[in-house]
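for the writeup, i need someone to sanity check this before i put it in the appendix. the sequnce is what the collaborator sent (i think, or maybe the updated version? ugh). structure was predicted straight from it, no edits. if anything looks off just tell me and ill rerun, i have time this weekend
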Amino acid sequence: MAYPTRDRAPLLDEDTQATIERRGRELLGLCLFGAGLAVAMMLWSHAPDDPSWLLASDAPVQNWLGSFGASVAHPLVMVLGRAAWGIPLLLGVWGLRLLTHRADQRARAVFAPVALAALAVAWASAEPGAGWTASYGMGGLFGDTALSFVLTLLPFDGWLTGLALWSVAAGLVLWVAGVTRAEWVAVRQRGTLLLVLGYARAVEGGARGLEIGGRLLRGGAALAAEARARGTEGMTRGLEQGAAWLARRREEAAAAREAARAAATRMPGTALPPPPAPSASPLVRRAQDGARRAMPPPVLPPRPAPPVAPEEREDGGWPDAPDEVPLAVVDGGADALPPLVAPPRAPQPPAGGFLATLLRRARGEETAGDPAGPEEDGPGPDPERLRSRIGEAIRARSLRPLPEEPEAAPAPLPAGGAAIPSAPAPVEPGPRARRRAPADGGPRRPAPAPAAPAAPAYVPPPLDLLADPASVQRHHLSDAALEENARALEQVLDDFGVKGEIVSVRPGPVVTMYELEPAPGLKASRVIGLADDIARNMSALSARVSTVPGRNVIGIELPNERREKVVLREILSAPAFGDAQTRLPLALGKDIGGAPVVANLAKMPHLLIAGTTGSGKSVAINTMILSLLYRLGPEECRLIMIDPKMLELSVYDGIPHLLSPVVTDPRKAVVALKWVVGEMEERYRKMSKMGVRNIEGYNGRVREALEKGETFSRTVQTGFDEETGDPVFETEEIQPELLPFIVVVVDEMADLMMVAGKEIEACIQRLAQMARASGIHLIMATQRPSVDVITGTIKANFPTRISFQVTSKIDSRTILGEQGAEQLLGQGDMLYMAGGGRIARVHGPFVSDEEVEEIVTHLKALGPPAYVGAVLEEPAEGGTLSEAAPNGGAEGDDALYDMAVQIVARDRKCSTSYIQRKLAIGYNKAARLVELMEEQGVVSPANHVGKREILVPEPH
C-alpha cells in the first residue's frame, strides 16, 4: 500500500537563496582579486638570488611576501618567464567580473593554462633586453621548449612569426578573460568616440594657440622691453645686496680665523679643525650643484692631499685661506673629488665667482670670452680671477696622469705637532695562509708553487664549415600517396595469407615505416620471412620487416622514391647534441621519423662497427670523430687513430687532439694498444690512491684542488723498523693533474687480426672489460664481419654495435645477432643496437672530404699536437721470441727463457712437449725455446730417437 507523501517547504525562499549566491560570488571574486594582487607583488619584488626550494642561498629575502613569495615567484619565472604576469592578470580580471556580476563566461577560465602557454611562447620569441639576466628566454623554460617545436610547424619566419604568436596569445588571453562580442563592440565604440573628441580638442587648442600667438606678436615688442627693464633692475638690486652680505660674512670669518691663529700660537699642542664652509644662498647652491654635475667623473682613487709649501706655515698656524675648489665641499664632493690646495691668498667668498658672473650678465657685460687676468692678492673679491682659477683647478684635476705605483706619502705635520687625518694607504696583497683540507685520497697540502697560467680556451670549428641544411632538397609524400601505398601493402600481405591492418604510417627522410597490426594468432616470424616477397611486389629496392619493441605491431620499412640527404650540421645544431650530461656525444644521424639521434660513447662504453665497402662505414667514422672535435678540446679528449688502410684517417694527422701520429703499421698498432693498456692500469692506480671509482670523480677532485691551490698526499707503509719492529710510514705526494678522455679509433680491424690476432684480441679484451671507468673508449670498425675477426670474446665485450649494409644474413647475425642488415640501402643506412639488444634504424649524415679538410685546417691553426712518444715505442723487454737476435745474444735476459733453463737443469729433461706443459705456453714458442737452449749449449742436439743430453750441471 502506497502512503501519500507531503511536499516539504524549502528552508529559504528563492530571493534569499539568490542573495546568498550573489554574496558568495562577490566573496569569491574578492578572494581572486586578492590572490592576483598577492601574485603580482611576488612577481614585482622577485629577485633571482632569493632563497627558495629551487635555490639554496644565505642572502636575505628581498621578496615583499618573504620566503613564501620567493618560493612561489622563483618557479613561476623559471617556467613561464614574463608570461607569469598572465596569472595575476587573469585572477584580477575574473575577480572583478565576479564582484560586478559579469561572470557569465566563467567556463572559459578552464582554458587559462592554454592561454598562459601561448603567452609564454610569444614571450620566448621576443629578444631579451639588457635587464633580463637569466640563461633562458623571456618565455621561461617552457616557452623555449615549445617555441623550438612551434617553429618547425610554421611555414614562415622572421617578424611574421612573432606577429602570429603574439596575435594568438593576445586572442587567447582576451577570450579566457571572458571578453564578449558586446564588450568588444562597446570598447571599440568608446575608443572611437575618445579619438574623435581628442582630435576636436586638438584642433580647438591649435586655433586658440594661433590666436594668442598673433596677439603676442602684435604687442610683443613693447611687453618685452618693459619686462626686460623691470627684470634687469630687480635682479641687479638683489645680486648687489647678496654680494654685500657675503662680503660682510667674509670679513667676520677672517676675524675669527685671526683669533684662532693667535690662540693656536699661544697653545702649540692644539690642532685646529678646518674652517666650516659658509652657508650659501639657494642661488649659489643651485649654481654649485650645476657645476658639480657638469664635472667629469674622477679617474683616480682617493689620495692624501699633497704637502703644503713651507712658506705657508712660517707662523706655525693655519694659512689665511686655503684655496679650495668650492665644489669639493658640496654633498658627495668629498668622495668624488679630493680638495685642491693652491698657494695662499687673501680670503675670498666661496661662491663669489658665480655671483660676479651673474652680476656682470645682469649689467650686460660679456664674460665668456674674457681672458683670465693675472692672479694677484687683493683685499676685495675679484670674481673674474676666482672663476678662472676654479676652471684651471678643475682642468688640472681631470688631466692629472695616473701614477704607475700609487704610494701614500706622509703628509708634513703642522707646527702644533698634531697629525692631519688622511685616507689609509691601500694594503698590498700578500701570500695567503696555507690551508689543509681533508680528502678521501688523503690530506691535502697547499701546492708549493702557484698554478701555471690556464691554457687558452678551445675554439671549436664553426658550423659554417659544414653543408647548410637549407641547401638540402626536401621530399614529402602527400597523405593521399601514403594512403595509397598503405592499401597496396595490405593487398600484398593479403595475397600471401597475412591478415592484418595498417594502423599507422611514419614517413622519414630515407624510408617510410608502415605499422601492421596483425590478426590474432599470426606469428611475426611469418611476416619477417616475407621481406623479399614484399619488396618484389611493392617494386622496392629492399624491404625490412621487424617487430616494434613495446607495441603490438610489426614494422615494414620501404624505401622512399627520392632519398633525402642527411647533413651533419643539422645533427650538431640539435639540442640533444648540446646536452651537458652527454660527455662524449656521437652524431649518428636521423631515425625513421627524421629526429636526430645522438649517442653517448661514455655510456656505451665501446662501439663495434661493421659493413661492406661502400656502405658508408668510413663516412660514419668521420662523423663520429668530428662530433668529438666539435664538442671537446684537446685538454678534454685525446685520440689515437689506427688506420692500416692508410687512406681514411690520415687526413687527421697533425690536429691537436692526437696522442700520436696516425698509426698505419699493424705492428705499431699492437704497440699502441699495449700502451693504452698500460695507461689504463696507471689511471686505475691514480684513482685508487685518490679513493674514487671513475674518471669523473677523479677529475672533480682535481679541479677542486687546483682551484684551492692544493696538492694531495697520503700516508703509506714502507716497511718495518729493524730495531723496534714498528711499521714505518711515509707521506706520498700526489700532484693533481686532470685526465682527459682517450678514444681509440681503429678503421680496419681485420688487417690487425691477420698480423697479430692473439695479441690484438688480448689487448682489446682487456680494454673492453676494464677501460670504461678510466675514461678510455674504443671505436672499432671492420668490413669483414666474420667469426674469425669478430670473435665471441670481442662480441661479449662490445654490447653496442652498428651494422651497415652486409652481403648475407650470416654476417648480419654475426654482428647483430639477427638478420636485417642485408636489407639496408647503403650510403649511411645503418642498424644501431644499443645496450640491451634494442635495434633501431638510423640514417647517417654525409660529410664530404672537402668539409673534413677545412675542419682539420682550422684545428691545425690552433697549434701543434702534444704527442706522447711512448705510445709508439716498444718496451725494452718487449718483443716476441721469434724476433730475437739469431745469434742468441739477448735471449738469456728473457724471463721465460731463464725459467725454461732452470726447469731443464733441475729435472734433467728437455723436450718441446715437456717445456710446453711446464710453462703453459704454445708449441711453437716451446720449440723455439728448445732451439735457443741448443744454440746456447744448454742441451745437446737430438739423437736418432729424439733424446737430448743436458750439458749444464745440476743445481745444488
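The chain has 25 helices and 16 strands. The CA atoms of residues 206 and 212 lie 10 Å apart.
thx in advance!!
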